[in-house]
Structure formats: structure tokens, C-alpha cells
Amino acid sequence: MYTELGLFIGGKWSNGAGRKAEAVVNPANEKTLAELPHASKADLDEALEAAKKGFEVWRKTDSWARGRVMAKAADIIRERAEHIAKILTQEQGKPFAEAKIEVGAAADVIQWMAEEGKRAYGRVIPSRLPGTRTFTTQEPVGIVAAFTPWNFPAITPARKIAGALGAGCSLILKASEEVPGTAVELAKAFADAGLPEGVLNLVFGVPAEVSEHLLSKPEIRKISFTGSIPVGKHLAKLAAGGMKRATMELGGHSPVIVFDDVDPEKTADFAAAGKFRNAGQVCISPTRFFVQENSYKKFAERFTEKAKSLKLGDGLDKDTKMGPLANARRLDAMANIVADCQSRGAKVRTGGSRHGNQGYFFEPTVVTDIQDDSKLMTQEPFGPVAPIIPFKTFDEVVARANSLEFGLAAYAFTTSTKTANAISDALQSGMVGVNTFTISMAETPFGGIKESGYGHEGSVEGLEAYTNKKFVAQA
Ligand code: NAD
Predict the structure, then answer these.
(1) What does the pLDDT read at residue 18?
(2) Using one digit for the tens of pLDDT, what is the confidence trace for 45-57?
(3) How many CB atoms lie within 10 A of CB 360?
(4) Nearest CA to ligand 1 atom 39
């Protein structure tokens, strides 16, 4: 029911010289799904050679032809959505319905970039030099190394593959070793759609060894990473060593500001659904709930009721509303965050502990009466723990919302247009959702500011991230 794992190099599947290096575990029952082969340095060098050849072919393939292959891959992914989503749920844990939506979103971004690749426009600049034309063009940046994490096994690799391929680049993707099956399925879809050999290569290994090896190669001209801030900073330094272009999609700790003019209970229903999606393991997850004082009590009570009512279980069970955490590390991280709150006198209204003793389940947890300097308020929780905090004034909440080094996503709920405008202007964040948590779509730019990273994925910006601008003066 799972899938056969392998490395995909130069259009061929291999098992990395037969070394099965790592067990892939189902977080719902801790059973091994498969053994994952790791790439050796020789395999990585082979992937680089393949990507060089792939780049020569793909950059010369016209954008319409490239778009046709990519659109076909998107169609294949949609046809196989159930199959891929089952693999995704088994390896990552999220409910099947969420997995299926994610697979659909992966197909969407591939289709978007299939189209957008045709529109990598340059611009004609009125020339002040007689008899001279001045203009810019966009060219593919070259061979890309991409690194993706374990929380969104389909959409995160798809964004990187789609941007690179849409722009005419070739790619070596090191997907997460904890959720490799979904990435294998994406690679299969591209191969079946007729993608030329070497344009997309998929490897697995020890993350630090793979990134160090690939980023030391001058042929790699761009890196795209999604993951934690410390690893992003490390990879940014490696990229700087070779003056490589970089896109960094790092962590967040998104404030949610609920003003007194909205219905606190309806907003709490909505907020709890947003918070516990993928068990909170989402970089744009709503995580710091600031609620204006008159609504605070009702909001906190309703949010707590919602958290209590969530059915935990294997993501493949129909009535499961929240799956396990993706790995055992997150259980320890959650326990640590909750213990820190409690030691500072916070009130755990529900949850706070591991659920059961098989599978990495952690109870949906709501914390109130919390200090601003506690771990839950200052470090990205990346799990199902929600702090709810009262506030009085606009200026006070803006200062608290902007007080951290994160700047990925922020949300606000209000019925006043004046407040909506003021809050979206005031929040220091790459993305702002006003009265919505839907801020990630194929056609809209996704990216952070401050320590949450730089660059964008998706949309026009997500294509430009994989192109160089060339200026030409032609006398
Ligand atoms: P981690 O910092 O060890 O790893 C984060 C990701 O980076 C993983 O996918 C890992 O395989 C990869 N990685 C680690 N070292 C690397 C290296 N030297 N080169 C290339 N890739 C490398 O943490 P973790 O325990 O896997 O996850 C915990 C934290 O990571 C979370 O608390 C969260 O802050 C962050 N995270 C963020 C995202 C996101 O979408 N931005 C996704 C997953 C994890």
C-alpha cells in the first residue's frame, strides 16, 4: 500500500548501490513502511552530471513545449491524487482529506508554472543613445539544489520543481527522508509525462552532507530551502560562499488579532480549525491568538471546546480530524513548551500531554494566562499548542505581534474596513490574512520577511526566483 522508494538520477531509478540507510516510519503506529536508500557522494556527482545534461536540453526546449510536459505531469498527479494522498498520510500522519487537498494544490502550482513559463517577459527601456536599443531578458538561472521538509511532502517539493522547471532550469531535489514516498510519486508523474532525463533528479541522504556537497559545486547556481531558521542561516552562508542565488522559506509564529467587532465564537471555530490543521505543523499556522478584552472570555471558551472535540487518530480513518505529529522529536518539543508555560504559572485549559502510547499523538492544547516571554510565545511551537492572550488597544497589540524576529504570516479579524487597512499596514509580515487563513495559492506569492527568510514561491515572483535578468544594449 506504500510505495517503492529509490533515487531518481538521470531519468533512472536506483537504490543508491543497494544501501538501505534509513527506515521510514508511519507516525500513527510507529511501524516501518519501507527502507530508504541514501545517495553516496558518487550518486550526488552523478545527479549533478545528469542535471547539467538536463539543463542543456531543457533550457533549449521552448516554453510552450516545457509547459505541455508540466501540465501533463499536473494532470497525472490529479489522476493519482487518492493513491498519492494515501502514501502521504501514511508517512506524514495528516488526515487523508488534508493530504488530498495538498496533492491537488501541488498539481495546481505545477500547472500555474507551466503557463507562467511562457510569460517570462523582459522589458524595452527607451534608449537615450542614438541608434541603440536597450532591453532586458530573463534567462533560467541554471542548475538548482532544493531541500524540502517533512510537514508538506507534496506542495513544498512541487513549488520548487514547478518554479525551476517553468523557468527552464534543471533541479536536484533532496526531499525529506522522513516523507520520501510523496516526492517519489511526484518524480514518477514527471517521468511519465515525458520530462527529459536529468531535468529533475531526486536524492535522499544525510541532509547536512548532501547540502554541503552540492553547495560546494560551482555548477549549482541557486538553492531553495524550506525549513527551520537555524538551518536556513547555515545554508545561506554556504550559498554565499559560491555567490549562489537563494530562496529561504523559514519558520513563523503567526499572530492572529481578533478585534471586538467580530463574533468571537464564530471566529474561534474558524481559528481552531486553522490552528489544528496538520496538527499545527505548518509554517504559516496561526499560533499567537491575541483577542480584544471584551471578546476574550467567549473566544477562549469556544476555542477550548473545539480543541476538546477534535477526534485524534490514524489519518486514514474517516472520522479522524487530527493526526499524529510527524515524528517523535515533535512530541518532546511539545512537552517542553507546555512544561515551560506551566512553570511560569500559565493555565492549560485542555490537553497538554501525549495522547496514548502508540503513535506520536499529542492532545490539542489551549493555554491562557501566559507570560509574553514564555517559550510558547517566543519560539515557533510547530505543533497543536495554542496560546490565547487578551489585549486592550490597537497600538499595544501591534507592538506585541511585531515583537518577535519572525515575519512570515499574520492574521486579523475585524468587520471594520478602517481597522482592516490599518492592521494590514502595521503588521511586519510577508503575508497578511484579514478575515481569512487562506493565504497560500499557486497564483499568489508565498514568502517571509525578517528571520522568516527571503524570496517567494508561487506566482510571478516564484518564477522570477529561478531566472537571471540580462540587460542588453544593442547599437
Ligand atoms: P531541523 O532544523 O533539524 O530540520 C528542518 C529541515 O531542514 C528538515 O527537513 C531537515 O531535513 C532539513 N535540514 C536539516 N539540516 C540540514 C542541512 N544541513 N542541509 C539541508 N537540509 C537540512 O528541525 P526538524 O526537527 O526537522 O524540524 C523542527 C523545526 O523545523 C520546526 O520547529 C520548525 O521550526 C522547522 N520547520 C519549518 C518548516 C517550514 O515549513 N518552514 C518545515 C519543517 C520544519
Answers:
(1) 52
(2) 999 999 999 999 9
(3) 26
(4) 227
Task: Give the residue, by CA position, lying nearest to ligand 1 atom 23.
Answer: 228
All domains of the chain, ordered by start, with CATH? Answer: 7-250+450-474 (3.40.605.10), 254-434 (3.40.309.10)
pTM assigned to the model: 0.97
Confidence of residue 94 (pLDDT cuts 50, 70, 90): very high
Nearest atom in ligand 1 to 382's CA: 32
CB-based burial, 275-311: b 16+ in 10 Å, e otherwise:
bbbbbbbbbbbbbbbbbbeebbeebbbbbbbbbeebe
CB 434 within 8 A of CB 259: no
Handedness of CA 227, 229, 231, 235 (dihedral sign): positive
Task: Report the amino acid identity of residue 314.
Answer: D
Question: According to the model, what pLDDT value does residue 321 have?
Answer: 97
Known catalytic residues are: 249, 283
Calculate the CA dihedral of residues 177, 182, 185, 189 and round it to 10 degrees: -120
What is the best residue among 152, 228, 250 to mutate for testing ligand 1's pocket, by most ligand atoms within 8 Å of CB?
228
| Ligand 1 first shell, C-beta below 6 A | 147, 149-151, 176, 207-208, 211, 226-228, 230-231, 234-235, 249-251, 283, 329, 380, 382
Q: With cut-offs at 50, 70 and 90, classify the pLDDT of residue 21.
A: confident
Contact in structure between 364 and 310 (CB atoms under 8 Å): yes
Q: Residues 6 or more apart from 391 whose CB is under 8 A from it?
A: 257, 290, 291, 292, 293, 397, 400
* Confidence at residue 19, expressed as pLDDT on a 0 to 100 scale: 66
Residue pLDDT, tens place only, 113-172: 999 999 999 999 999 999 999 999 999 999 999 999 999 999 999 999 999 999 999 999
